[in-house]
Design a protein that fits this description.
The strands form two sheets. Strands 1, 2, 3, 4, 5, 6 and 7 form a seven-stranded antiparallel β-sheet that branches. Strands 9-8-10-11-12 form a five-stranded antiparallel β-sheet, with no helix packed on it. Helix 3 packs antiparallel against helix 4. Helices cover 32% and strands 30% of the residues. The chain is α+β, with helices and mostly antiparallel strands. The protein has four helices and twelve strands.
Length: 306
């Protein structure tokens, strides 16, 4: 009798657990509401550095300022697994010959050309620097013009010293076989909390392929926690039916027209994954939803990247 009662309790418990699990999955698979769509996006700002590496030596060739958007995203659709993950677009300076970056010989040739070009620039800078030094020594009156020239000369000295250091490093690795070109991103993400106040957190530095500009990339915040009040989107395993009409979230830092900083803008798919929205309302990294609230992807120039 006791064994039968125990089996009955286990059966009831199993049914309850199964029902709870199914309910949980149904809730997790529900589309986002309008309020959740607005809370899903964030600003992504920082620097993207184009770097050249050879062994332990790394040279920063160029730096771009990044101002775009991103979306909080879960790792798994069936569980709140954002953990501070932000999906955005990998942007930054792309070399003209980016299609040949995988070829070591081509890359070494580009480095050699860049080194020679930088050497020529340094020669011109040195001539200009000597002329400025001569002017400052021979000018007998310290007036406003003298002060302006002295300020300019100091700025030129700092720039020339920086270029000289970079030139010497390039010369040292010019003939080394194992060299690699990559981008390093140093970003922060910011979002508006429930009170409309802008919050901010730094992200872990990220290293990406220099030839993959415009592709989706995941950033990880240093806290590794989803901030309170934001909504993390999820990719359901069965996919989402693409309708012609889409909704894009445009985040505004100085929005005075409505009570929301996140403005929902409607657009359409043109062909394939291309959209018809102007860049003003479709910044790189802006999340895109279907008209029913299903997450579709993020904006990358004129396309929606899943």
């Amino acid at each position: 009798m006791l064994a039968k009662f125990t089996r009955h309790k286990l059966l009831v418990l199993g049914i309850l657990l199964l029902a709870c699990g199914l309910t949980w999955l149904v809730v997790r698979s529900m589309p986002a509401t309008e309020a959740e769509i607005r809370r899903s996006t964030c600003f992504v700002e920082g620097k993207s550095f184009l770097c050249l590496a050879s062994g332990k030596d790394t040279i920063v060739l160029m730096a771009d300022s990044i101002h775009q958007q991103g979306v909080w995203i879960n790792r798994h659709w069936w569980w709140p697994s954002c953990d501070g993950r932000v999906l955005t677009i990998d942007n930054g300076f792309t070399p003209i010959h980016h299609k040949h970056l995988e070829n070591a010989d081509t890359l070494r040739k580009l480095v050699a050309e860049g080194t020679d070009s930088l050497g020529s620039l340094l020669k011109r800078k040195e001539v200009e620097r000597k002329e400025l030094i001569y002017y400052l020594r021979s000018h007998g009156v310290i007036d406003e013009g003298y002060t302006q020239i002295a300020t300019y000369a100091n700025a030129q000295k700092i720039e020339t010293d920086s270029l000289t250091s970079r030139y010497r490093k390039l010369l040292a690795i010019k003939n080394i076989k194992q060299i690699k070109l990559f981008r390093k991103g140093v970003y922060k993400v910011s979002w508006y909390d429930g009170k409309g106040k802008l919050q901010c957190v730094n992200c872990q530095p990220i290293i990406t392929n220099a030839g993959k500009s415009g592709q989706p990339v995941i950033l990880h915040t240093q806290r590794s926690l989803k901030p309170w009040g934001v909504y993390a989107v999820r990719n359901v395993p069965w996919g989402v039916t693409h309708h012609k009409k889409i909704i894009v979230v445009a985040l505004s830092a100085t929005n005075k027209l409505t009570e929301h900083h996140a403005i929902l803008v409607t657009g359409h798919f043109k062909s394939g994954n291309r959209h018809d929205l102007p860049r003003l309302f479709a910044a790189d990294g802006s999340p895109v939803f279907s008209q029913h609230g299903r997450y579709l992807g993020i904006i990358s120039r004129k396309e929606v990247m899943p």
